[in-house]
Every structure is written in C-alpha cells, then in structure tokens.
C-alpha cells in the first residue's frame, strides 16, 4: 500500500546525498517533494501542512546544519515525525480488572468487521491466552450471523448467536444476553460484532450507542477500510462524535490503495491505530506499531516484526538440532529432509515476498519480489517428496537414472532436479560455515565475524603499500642487521591475517558457489 509513497520519499532523499551542508533551497526542494508525495498518497491536507511545517522547522535548525550527513539527519527527522502522526507509541488493549473484558467493533458495512472479529479472537486466544467469545449482534446484513459462525469455527472460538439475523431479532437484547452467557461460561473476553451501514445515518448511530450502553465496553474499536482514502477520516470523525471509540483498526492494508487513511486518521481523530489487518487469512493480523510502520514507509524494513514472526513460527528445539547438524562434520548430517522442514517453517511465516519485504533495503528489489513465483517453492517440495528416504539422506547417490525417475514423479525436468541438488550442496556448505562462525566459504574474514579482527580494514592499506617501496623497520639495529622483513602480500594475494601465509599465499578468487549466487560475476 505504501510502495508509491516510499518511492517518492526515497527520490526526495536521494537528492540530498553527497551534500556537505544543507541550504535553504535544499530544504525547500526536499519538503516540496515530501508534500507532493503525501498528497498523492491521499493524506489529509491539514495533516500534510502540519507535518511539512515541523520538518521545515527542524531541518532549518542546528541539528542538521551541524550534522556530518544532512541526508541521514533529514531522514531521521522525517522518521520521527512519521511516527508522531501515526500515533507515537504502540497502544495495548485495556483489559478489565474483573473479567470479562468487552470489546465492541463498530464501522461501516464492508469494512471487514466480521472477519476482523475472528482475527482478533484468534490473536487473543493464541497470543494473550484469553478465552474469547464472539457475539453476533449484526442482525441486519444478510447471512452476517452465519458468516460469524464460520469465522468463529475457523478460529476455534465459540459464537453466541441466539437470533438468526437477516432482519430478525433485537441486537441490543443479544448483546445484553451475551454478557450473562460470558459470565456463566467464564469467558475472559467478549467481542461484539455490530451492524454497519453503507453510509453514516441516525439509525446506525442510535443502534451502536444502544449496544454500547447495554454492554458498557472496555474498548470500542472503529474498523475502517484503509482503501477508501479521505472518506475514512470523515467517517471516523462522524463515529467519534456520534458513538465514540477508543482505538482504530485498519483493514485491507494489503490492498493497492494509496494508504493516506493510515497516515491521517490518528492525527485527525486523536485516537490510536491499534491493529492492522493485511490479508484474507485469520493469521493476517498484527499489532500496529507506529515506529515499525514508519520504518517500512521509509524503506528501512521491519526487522523486529520479522523476528517476532519467526519466534512464533519456528520450533526452538528443532532449530537447535538443525544448527547442531550444520556445525558438525561440515554440515554433512544436514539432509534434504531438514532442508524441506526449514523451507516449510519459513512458508508458515507468510508469503516469501512479504517476508523479504520486511528486510532493510528490500525496496531496491521490489520488481524482483513482485515477479517472484511462489509456485517455485511448491515445485521444490514436489521434487524432494519424489525422492526415496535414502536419496534425501544422501543426495550424492542421485545418479542419472534416479534423476530421471524423480523428475517424472514430480512432473518436472531432469535439469530442475539437478539444479535443486546442486543448489542444496551449495546452500549446505554456506550455512555450515556460517553456523560454525567461519563466514562465507572461501571468503576472507569480514569485520564483525570471528577471526576477522581489524585485518579487513588493513588489507587495502597493505596492498597499497605493496605497490610502492617497501618500508624498512623502525628499529635502526634491525635495519642495519638486515633482519628479514615480513613480506607484504602482492595484489590479488591473501595477507597472512587471512591465512595467506606470505610467499605461500595463492591468488584469492571468489568460491564457485558464491560466483553462481552473484550471477557469474
């Protein structure tokens, strides 16, 4: 949703790189680009004006003028101001001191309240270890009750639906009875799904207010479709005035709309965005972190969310066993079965394009990510499943006839099987070296990696010295005695710090597997 905004902001910052000092003209040009980017993203005009004014004020101050890198300083300012308009700090749900906690969902028809009720219930059950119950108080929309029952079944959460809906029943009475049901069956959270309308009207507001008065909710969450742009802010203000709400939930964040609602609604209404729904599955539901969203918009990734997702998905014991296999015997105990298990665990985190999109700098590879075919992973799984247990344990035994059989069984070409086996050996070699703390196979130590020390930074200086005259010893006695001096590595030769060993060091070349990864360069 924020791709276009991210691209425009990146272009605005690009013009600042390489400048030693910011002039008034630079600041004016940059803020103009940022203003255009926000307006094109459908951000509310008052929000844009306030945002630009703050950036111009801070960018004109000493914190940038005295900075060593103006571009980074401006990005820092924009990031901090983005976090501010997105709501500041992450807001948690308020839980009742005496259960049950009552959460009421409000919003227009089509905003995604019913699906979101199931997502929220599943999240509360699995993450917060609560025992939620869903309440079908939307008795107007056709089959709304049935839809909530289906969603509740998928989420593994009970649904209280005493009325059939489709225009039959009193939603206020259903909400009141639901409270008695929750107390009787000791549910810790009650989530009330209310009716919506195609537009804001008096009947909608009165019904929502009556349900609010009947259940006295701890949280009223306004569910808004992030794809409706500026109208989202107008509708939110109408609900705030008519019923009131405590927090906002953005649905359909995976859409291709311009995303201005997300950047406007918290600032205009003064209510925090608390959750974001970004897909059709019940798992596509996240707590809204303003700082992480700002980081994504500026193309800096969202590593914390990626780590949290991995922690929820990966089995710690299984991961430890896999790491142990990679560290021993050069990783030879790591089999295709382990490789398949790792790949399936990663897939549980969600689409690979979404996972890679959380990495810093992923915006540079946006086109490649968009063109990535998820079915390629299915083909890899099919190839591995077509192998015998012995072949998965020791892929070295896969000869020509076996490859032909595997290709036929998986519906692929022999070249596909050969390519998979070859890539597996390369990946195992690299993962084994990294798990053992040796860095990438065949590569010299890198700063921050075991065995590297400060040698990496000295290599260029050593090679530069080797091209000129050799330096004599600083000790006159040694110089006079002709003591043998350690030889500097010749260009293309590894220094002793990297295992080159002086005269015996061979010419350094990239390993074949890394050459292939870099496209043969």
Describe the SSE topology.
Elements: H1 3-14, H2 24-40, H3 45-59, H4 62-65, H5 70-85, E1 101-106, H6 113-127, E2 132-137, H7 144-155, E3 159-160, H8 171-184, E4 189-194, H9 202-215, E5 219-225, H10 230-242, E6 247-251, H11 260-269, E7 272-277, E8 285-287, H12 290-297, H13 303-313, H14 316-327, H15 336-348, H16 352-357, H17 366-370, H18 375-385, H19 389-393, H20 400-410, H21 414-435, H22 455-467, H23 476-481, H24 512-517
Description:
This protein has 521 residues and is of the alpha/beta class. Helix content is 52%, strand content 8%. It contains 24 helices and 8 strands. The chain has helices at 3-14, 24-40, 45-59, 62-65, 70-85, 113-127, 144-155, 171-184, 202-215, 230-242, 260-269, 290-297, 303-313, 316-327, 336-348, 352-357, 366-370, 375-385, 389-393, 400-410, 414-435, 455-467, 476-481, 512-517; strands spanning 101-106, 132-137, 159-160, 189-194, 219-225, 247-251, 272-277, 285-287. The protein has an 8-stranded mixed sheet with strand order 3-2-4-1-5-6-7-8, with helices on both faces. Strand 6, helix 11 (260-269) and strand 7 form a beta-alpha-beta unit. The two termini are 35 Å apart. Residues 440-471, 481-511 and 513-521 have low confidence and may be disordered.
């Amino acid at each position: 949703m924020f791709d276009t905004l991210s691209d425009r902001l990146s272009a605005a910052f690009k013009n600042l790189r390489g400048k030693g000092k910011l002039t008034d003209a630079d600041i004016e040009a940059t803020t103009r680009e940022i203003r255009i980017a926000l307006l094109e993203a459908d951000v509310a005009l008052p929000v844009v004006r306030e945002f630009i004014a703050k950036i111009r004020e801070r960018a004109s101050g000493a914190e940038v003028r005295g900075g060593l890198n103006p571009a980074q300083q401006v990005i820092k300012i924009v990031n901090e101001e983005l976090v501010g308009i997105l709501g500041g700090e992450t807001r948690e749900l308020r839980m009742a001191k005496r259960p049950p906690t009552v959460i009421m969902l409000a919003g227009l028809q089509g905003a995604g309240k019913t699906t979101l009720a199931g997502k929220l219930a599943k999240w509360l059950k699995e993450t917060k270890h609560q025992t939620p119950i869903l309440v079908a108080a939307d008795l107007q929309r056709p089959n709304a009750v049935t839809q909530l029952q289906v969603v509740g079944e998928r989420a593994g959460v009970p649904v209280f639906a005493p009325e059939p809906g489709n225009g039959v029943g009193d939603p206020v009475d259903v909400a009141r009875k639901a409270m008695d049901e929750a107390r009787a069956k000791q549910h810790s959270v009650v989530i009330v799904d209310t009716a919506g309308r195609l537009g804001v009207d008096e009947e909608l507001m009165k019904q929502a207010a009556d349900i609010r008065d009947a259940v006295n909710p701890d949280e009223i969450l306004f569910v808004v479709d992030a794809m409706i742009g500026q109208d989202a802010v107008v509708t939110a203000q109408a609900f705030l005035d008519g019923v009131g709400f405590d927090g906002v939930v953005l649905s359909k964040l995976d859409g291709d709309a311009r995303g201005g609602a997300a950047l406007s609604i918290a600032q205009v209404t003064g209510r925090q965005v608390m959750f974001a729904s970004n897909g059709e599955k019940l798992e596509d539901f996240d707590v809204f972190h303003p700082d992480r969203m700002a980081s994504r918009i500026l193309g800096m990734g969202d590593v914390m969310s990626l780590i949290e997702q991995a922690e929820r998905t990966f089995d710690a014991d299984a991961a430890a066993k896999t790491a142990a296999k990679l560290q021993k015997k050069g990783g030879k105990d790591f089999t295709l079965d382990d490789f398949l298990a790792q790949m399936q665990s990663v897939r549980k985190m969600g689409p690979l394009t979404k996972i890679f999109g959380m990495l810093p700098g992923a915006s540079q590879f946006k086109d490649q990510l968009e063109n990535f075919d998820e079915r390629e992973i299915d083909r890899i799984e099919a190839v591995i499943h077509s192998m015998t247990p012995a072949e998965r344990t020791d892929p070295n035994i896969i000869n020509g006839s076996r490859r032909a059989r595997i290709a036929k069984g998986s519906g692929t070409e022999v070249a596909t099987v050969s390519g998979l086996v070859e890539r597996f050996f390369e990946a195992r070699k690299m993962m084994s070296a990294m798990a053992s703390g040796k860095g990438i196979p065949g590569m010299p130590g890198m700063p921050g990696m075991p065995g590297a020390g400060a040698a990496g930074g000295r290599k260029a200086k050593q090679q530069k010295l080797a091209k000129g005259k050799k330096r004599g010893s600083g000790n006159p006695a040694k110089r006079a005695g002709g003591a043998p001096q350690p030889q500097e590595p010749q260009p293309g030769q590894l220094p002793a710090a990297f295992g080159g060993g002086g005269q015996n060091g061979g010419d350094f070349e990239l390993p074949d597997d890394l050459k292939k990864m870099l496209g043969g360069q």
